[in-house]
């Protein structure tokens, strides 16, 4: 098992001193048993330039846009219930294919139709994000969210970012009561 991170911590992504090139970012969660109807959480990735804004609307990768331009970031598909063990959704990132204009890839989880269903992250348990080296299958790092986000309907779990030519991962855990639309707008995605 890799490094367990706390909120705000980061780690350089290397395997035996060699920078990682191809990773899977796995996101998982469970709904509280008494939370009512199934909670449909959706993982997304925002591919940002060095200005920390989305490169283009097509660089917002989610269940309706599974692949970024050039194919460096790929969503494996939508899980509607979160049932089962392991990752509920995965996003594959080929770090070597991300050009020098890319500064970070931000990973977001939001509750689908949260307002209409009256659902929040206060009804979600055991949420985590992890980075796995695709070459070896080894988990490099993991961040488990540990606080009650009673009013939030979306959350930035973490980010892969480039610093001094190296890729690192940062555990963020920032909740938003404005849903996915609020996060997308903050990063400059046109959600109209």
Describe this structure in words.
With 192 residues, this protein is mainly beta. The chain has a single domain, classed as Sandwich (Lipoxygenase-1), CATH 2.60.60. It has helices at residues 114-117, 179-186; strands at 3-5, 10-12, 14-15, 18-19, 22-31, 41-49, 60-61, 73-75, 89-94, 102-111, 124-133, 139-144, 154-163, 166-176. Strands 1-12-11-5-9-8 form a six-stranded mixed beta sheet, with no helix packed on it. A hairpin with a 5-residue loop joins β11 (124-133) and β12 (139-144). The longest helix is centred in the last third of the chain and has 8 residues, at 179-186. The chain is globular. The protein starts with a strand and ends in a 6-residue tail after the last helix.
């Amino acid at each position: 098992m890799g490094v367990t991170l706390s909120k705000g911590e980061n780690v350089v992504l290397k395997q035996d001193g060699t920078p990682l090139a191809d990773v899977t970012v796995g996101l998982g969660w469970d709904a509280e048993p008494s939370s009512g109807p199934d909670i449909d959480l959706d993982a997304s990735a925002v591919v940002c330039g060095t200005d920390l804004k989305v490169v283009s609307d097509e660089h917002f990768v989610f269940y309706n846009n599974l692949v970024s331009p050039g194919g460096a970031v790929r969503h494996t598909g939508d899980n509607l219930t979160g049932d089962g063990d392991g990752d509920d959704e995965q996003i594959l990132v080929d770090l070597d294919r991300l050009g020098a204009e890319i500064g970070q890839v931000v990973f977001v989880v939001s509750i689908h139709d949260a307002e209409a269903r009256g659902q929040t992250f206060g009804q979600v348990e055991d949420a985590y994000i992890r980075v796995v080296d695709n070459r070896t299958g080894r988990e490099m790092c993991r961040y488990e969210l540990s606080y009650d986000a009673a009013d939030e309907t979306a959350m930035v779990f973490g980010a892969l970012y480039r610093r001094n030519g190296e890729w690192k991962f940062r555990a963020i855990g920032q909740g938003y009561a404005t849903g996915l639309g609020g996060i997308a707008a903050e990063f400059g995605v046109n959600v109209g």
